[in-house]
Structures are given as C-alpha cells and as structure tokens.
Write a structure and sequence with these properties.
8-stranded antiparallel beta sheet; 12 strands
Length: 198
C-alpha cells in the first residue's frame, strides 16, 4: 500500500508508521536542571543547613582546626539556643563580619560568675568536661569591661570557646545577640577521623 505523499519515505515515523520523536541534543535539558540544582542548593544553605570550616583553635578539643562542621538552621526558627549548645553567629570586627563558633554558657536573665577558675551560672558551678581541666579566667583588654558576677541581658547569650585559655569570647566581646546566631552546630563531617556529633 502506497504511503500518502506527505509521509515522504516515512521520515519522522517508525517502521509501523507511528510518529517518532526527533532526538534532541544532549544538552537541551541540562540548563534547567543546573538552574534548579543551584536554586535548591541556595535554599538549603540559607534555610536548612550550612557547612563551616573551623579556622582557629578556640573550640579545641571538641572541634579541631580544619574540621568541617554542619550547622542546622531549622530548630532556632522555633526556639532560642540553650546552654551547652554550640552555635555559629555573626560578629562584626575590624570593619568586616565574621562567622564565629562558640558554646552557649548562659541565656538572657542568667548570671555568670568566674571564681577560682570555674564558671558559675546562677550560683551553681558548671560541670564542663569539654574544657579538659583548663581554668576559666576573666580576659583583660577586651572590647568592653566585664564585671563579675554578670547578668546576661534578655535577648542575648553568653558564649565561650571550649579552649578557655585561647578563646576570644564573651569574656572579651560581651554577650552576643540571639538574632545574630546563624546555626546550631550539630556534627563534624570532615576529616573522617574527626566525624562526631557535637
């Protein structure tokens, strides 16, 4: 049976005479896929989790220099940071803004005191195995003078590094604003030998 003239030798049709899709270039769907992946990555990093590389030793021995940490951003949309949690936060210094990482020691309304190398919150000495026996002493020459005992203002956090003899923290810079907290650090994911929840 002869094919109709408009089917010229069956071009564009398969052997059964059905329409066959013309092959598209391999890259035709690549750009939308890449754009979608980029948008999703930005959304996840902005609202869900963010990786951080640790440049200093202020959180040793809990977090080592060069460790990579994941900070989750969801929980603090529903509650404020709590004592004992490790947080990342923004701090303006020397004309630019840095992201720092410290442990929350006290929250707004609580009173911090440093006595005989120990930290007291509301009159109770903290059990701090993560400092490795280092004494916690007041820091001299900070951004603002801190007199102890010190009551943390509402809406602020008192934060300190676990490496108490090598950490520039609330003892030097004062309390940080809750609104400056960017994430709750939850896990070290690199290098493999340091992988741990924190």
């Amino acid at each position: 049976m002869a094919r109709p003239a408009h089917l010229k030798d069956g071009k564009g049709f398969d052997a059964a005479g059905s329409a066959a899709a013309a092959p598209e270039g391999r890259d035709a769907g690549l750009l939308p896929t890449l754009l979608l992946a980029l948008v999703l990555a930005v959304l996840v990093r902005t609202f869900v989790i963010e990786p951080y590389k640790i440049p200093t030793g202020s959180m040793e021995q809990t977090i080592q220099v060069g460790d990579r940490v994941i900070g989750e951003k969801v929980s603090y949309r529903f509650r404020d940071p709590q004592p004992g949690e490790i947080v990342t936060f923004l701090r303006e210094q020397d004309g630019h803004t840095d992201t720092l990482i410290k442990r929350v020691i006290a929250v707004g309304g609580q009173t911090v005191d440093l006595r005989d190398g120990a930290v007291y919150v509301d009159g109770v000495a903290l059990d701090e195995p993560y400092v490795g026996g280092q004494p916690t002493l007041p820091l001299q020459g900070g951004d603002l003078p801190i007199a102890y005992p010190y009551t943390v203002p509402e809406g602020y956090l008192w934060v300190m590094g676990d490496n108490r003899t090598n950490s520039r923290d609330s003892r030097a810079i004062g309390p940080i604003r809750v609104e400056d907290v960017t994430s709750h650090a939850v896990v070290i994911f690199w290098p493999p030998e340091d992988i741990a929840t924190i």
